[in-house]
Specification:
This protein has helices at 2-19, 23-45, 48-64, 75-94, 101-104, 152-159, 163-174, 179-186, 190-207, 219-237, 241-245, 266-275, 342-345, and strands at 248-255, 262-264, 292-299, 302-310, 316-327, 330-337. The chain is an alpha+beta fold and 349 residues long. A six-stranded mixed beta sheet has the order 2-1-6-5-4-3, covered by helices on one side. The radius of gyration is 22 Å and the shape is elongated. It starts with a helix and ends with a helix.
Length: 349
């Protein structure tokens, strides 16, 4: 109780100073919420880069509107109101969903050339798990656990919801806001919140199957997963196509945004990677063994690797980020985000 009162007193002091124009006090007041707001904006937008921009915009708006904050809601809820509506304004302009190639088109023919990036489509982007380790981003009472509400599958399902239904579901079922708080954030009625939440839950149930909680995994499961990741990394770095494909489920999928091309099944993936990613005469050229280096990380609560490609100087340059999903000791999905800026976003070279 004493700690809570001390914190409330400190917030009141910072707020009073900030409202008098003290920028340092404003930073002290808002910085504890920055990370959770980034996660929130990412869930609405599906973009790491846009989420960061929207949080910056939120902080700017909060500074400019600080005199209008009257304390009827918590300062955190007030920031969420600004952030949520800033994201919705952006979605009103963009009017496109961020999905993955396997959600919008049929599998590609591995005997044809990989398609160039689709200019009319923006894809879902990965999110660093390290950013989720801030305790302020955790919501133990939420309907969806913090182990799943950032997964690629969950994020993809969210994208099928209209923006305001998406915001309602995130506020209610992920952040555990009350119906009244959600109505205040979105400036709509409580019955409208409840109606939107019902429709959103129905749509999500059709497109998303809840994952088992990670805490229920046994030591054997952990050891199997580590074995799978170790052998995947070795096969990728040594261009062992057969060894890599042996780690895949029969109907595994492999996508490479921003290209809309994707491949399904061991045979198709084998043919594609053998002729391109690991082919001596493939699209990347040069000797395949040693062409790639991987550094383990995690993204969207899944195992991931930062991918580096050897260049003419024999140095390795950032190439992108590869996320794996597995089931039953085999890989079910590979998503290779081809973006050299991603490793640094994950705190890697």
């Amino acid at each position: 109780m004493a700690n809570a009162q001390t914190r409330e007193s400190e917030v009141a002091r910072q707020l009073a100073a900030a409202q008098k124009g003290d920028m340092n006090a404003f930073s002290e007041l808002t910085e504890p919420y920055r990370r959770e707001l980034q996660v929130h904006c990412y869930r609405i937008l599906g973009s790491l880069y846009e989420a960061e921009d929207m949080v910056q915009e939120t902080m700017l708006k909060a500074w400019k509107r600080l005199d209008s904050y009257e304390g009827r809601a918590s300062f955190r809820a007030w920031l969420y109101k600004i952030a949520t509506n800033t994201c919705l304004d952006l979605l009103d302009q963009r009017r496109s969903r961020r999905l993955l190639p396997l959600d919008v088109r049929s599998p590609s023919d591995p005997s044809t050339s990989i398609l160039p990036p689709a200019t009319e489509m923006t894809w879902l982007e990965p999110f660093p798990d390290d950013w989720l380790r801030d305790a302020s981003a955790l919501n133990p009472e939420a309907r969806y656990s913090d182990l799943e509400n950032i997964s690629l599958s969950f994020m993809t399902a969210l994208q099928y919801l209209p923006p305001r239904q998406r915001a309602v579901l995130i506020l209610r079922d992920v952040l555990d806001f009350s119906a009244n708080e959600t109505a205040e954030v979105l400036e709509i009625t409580v019955p409208s919140v409840n109606s939107a939440l019902h429709r959103a839950r129905v749509t999500l149930a059709e497109r998303y199957e809840e994952r088992e909680l990670e805490s229920s995994a046994s030591q054997t499961d952990d050891e199997r997963t580590q074995w799978l990741l170790d052998h995947f990394m070795q096969a990728w770095e040594t261009a062992d196509v057969d060894g890599l494909v042996a780690l895949l489920k029969e109907d595994a999928a492999f996508a490479m945004p921003p290209s809309p091309s994707w491949y399904q099944g061991r045979e198709a993936i084998h043919q594609f990677v053998a002729g391109t990613i690991f082919g001596d005469a493939g699209m990347f050229g040069g000797k395949a063994d040693g062409r790639w280096r991987l550094l383990p990380t995690s993204a969207n609560h899944s195992p991931a690797f930062a991918v580096y490609q050897r260049v003419e100087t024999n140095d390795y340059r950032a190439f992108g980020l590869l996320i794996l999903e597995a089931d039953g000791g085999l890989i079910t999905k590979l998503v290779s985000f081809i973006d050299p800026s991603l490793p640094s976003r994950f705190g890697l070279p």
